[in-house]
Amino acid sequence: MTNKEAKCAAREEKRFDDIVYGGHKVAAAVQPQKKQAQPNRKGGGLDAGDENAMAADYIRLVGILLPGALAKLSLLEDPRNVKKCDHTLPTLIVYGLIMFLSHMQSRRAANQDISGESAHELLKQVIPELASIPHADTLARLLKRVDVDGIESCYEDTVTTFINSKTFLELNPGQCLIALDGTQKYSRRYCFDEHTLVYNRGNEDKERYAVYVLESILILNNGMILPLFTEFLKNDDGELGDEAKKQDCELKAFTRLTDKIAKVIGKGRVTLLVDGLYANGPVVSRCKAFGWDFMINLKRGSLQTVWEDFDGLCKCDPGSTLQNTTEAKRGQIFHWANGIEYIYGKNHKKIYLNIVTCTEEWTEMHLHSDGKPKAMVCEYAWLSSMEVTEKNVVRLCNDIARKRWRIENNFLVLKHQGYAYSHCFSYDWNAMRGFHSLMKFAHFINTMILSSTITCEQVKALGAKGFIKKVWEILRLRGIGQHADAVSQNNPAGRNRGCIYRDVRLRAA
After folding, report:
1. What's the pLDDT at 509?
2. Taking the CB of residue 109, how many other CB atoms lie within 10 A of it?
3. Among 178, 213, 176, 410, which Cα is nearest to 296's?
4. N- to C-terminal Cα distance for the chain?
5. Contact predicate 148/434, CB 8 Å
6. Please, are residues 381 and 355 in contact by the beta-carbon 8 Å criterion?
7. Is the pLDDT of residue 395 over 70?
């Protein structure tokens, strides 16, 4: 890399960090509103002028964010013989990012849909010397050999910068809400890699080999959900053949992932939201050691002695009760008890737990069946690190604990709304992790674009998935030349990124 190219890369990386760090005024954070339903009427789409403006806005934001992300990723060491390669490492990395930015569902789809002239023009905005679009298989071969931990490290640096930014502090004052949950990417009936987990081991008819991951997300008050860190569950070499050893599991991965969160974000400042699998003594002790708050789902079948003490305390102290009515006209009854003693482990370690339950009642109108109203009842329970009182019980349960469900919504977006999370882009373990890291980077960039003040009206009209789909249809059909002209017309100072960069602001909700 020449001195001029190094300075250019450093400048783009600084711009990217400044956007993530939030060096500009951001709208005040407000409570997110219920998602507006799409109108069920004929027409309602955007006209040609609005579509061109929408594509121009998207290109403008991608042209600001993508070079900075590429500058970070370009520092990776290229394991190939560069003299024999047609495409450089930055070219292949930006091609991989565009695959996921444009919601490509497979490598074959990428070869068909983003290998035309319009995609070539877009890539040349980032890499001017690009002679041709690479093949998706070339990217897969690179990811087999490249240091994937370096890609993940670049993403961790980006997210950490955002968490420490003015933008984040204005949109999300207080604790960082982090939700954790495990999910399966895909499974096969044959062993495609020695690191895979095995279900029904020994039963040839039902035996399956799967890739399973523990994901974490960052939940902001304005409704944004950003992917955080990922921990792959994997078996070490030779572990599958040793019956005396156990496979990797979510609780083991939880230890590794929380170590990473504590190292990057630090102790304190975190509120952890997890499901009932983690309602046990070691998890609670680990959170307390890090100084983290937590709200852990608790089932009736877990911690039997704690439940017995809770039921007894509720009978003895009926004053620890509160009734509440939500905005959706649902009645809630809260019961809580603090300081319940729990002993676990061989060393009989003692901890004290706070438990809160919520019984919710409402009337459901089944208009599409018999049309008769039906009384519904649902019960919830959580372990809380904070002492539950009459003043904070509604906030702890409704505003914090229930946001754990956002990670399920995130899985829905990744798997079924554009990012092909469950698709096997490569059976090689290293390449699979590389595609996963590029997907997270692209998801982060798209989330920033969809949450900006520039695109908010179009996103409301088309939805997030519809917006991305429409933009890339326009780019493939019409190219980007006229949209680049629109960028120049909207920017009196010309194509200077330093001017349009001021428009990158996150909307509040």
Report:
1. 46
2. 16
3. 178
4. 42
5. yes
6. yes
7. yes
- 368/482: higher pLDDT: 368
Residue found under tokens 């955002």: 162
Where do the domains of the chain lie, and which CATH numbers do they carry? 3-19+46-146+429-503 (no CATH), 149-416 (3.90.350.10)
In the block, residue with structure tokens 């946001």: 403
Round to whole Å and give the CA distance between 385 and 82. 54
Nearest to 295 by CA among 370, 357, 210, 225: 357
Provide mean pLDDT across the span 126-138: 80
Residue 13, SS3 per DSSP: helix
> pLDDT category, 368, cuts 50, 70, 90?
low
266 by DSSP, 3-state: which? coil
Provide the pairing of β-strand 197-199 with 373-384: unpaired
Residue 244: both structure tokens together:
């005396």
Report the percent of the chain where pLDDT is more than 90: 40
- Give 101's contacts (C-beta < 8 A, 6+ positions apart): 62, 442, 445, 446, 468
Which has more pLDDT, 187 or 40?
Answer: 187
Shortest CA distance to 438 belongs to which of 63, 145, 99, 97? 97
C-alpha triplet 463, 468, 472: angle, nearest 5°: 145
Nearest in space to 408 (alpha carbons), one of 146, 179, 251, 212: 179
23, 35, 32, 18: which is closest to 508 by C-alpha? 32
Report the predicted TM-score, pTM, of the whole model to 2 decimal places. Answer: 0.85
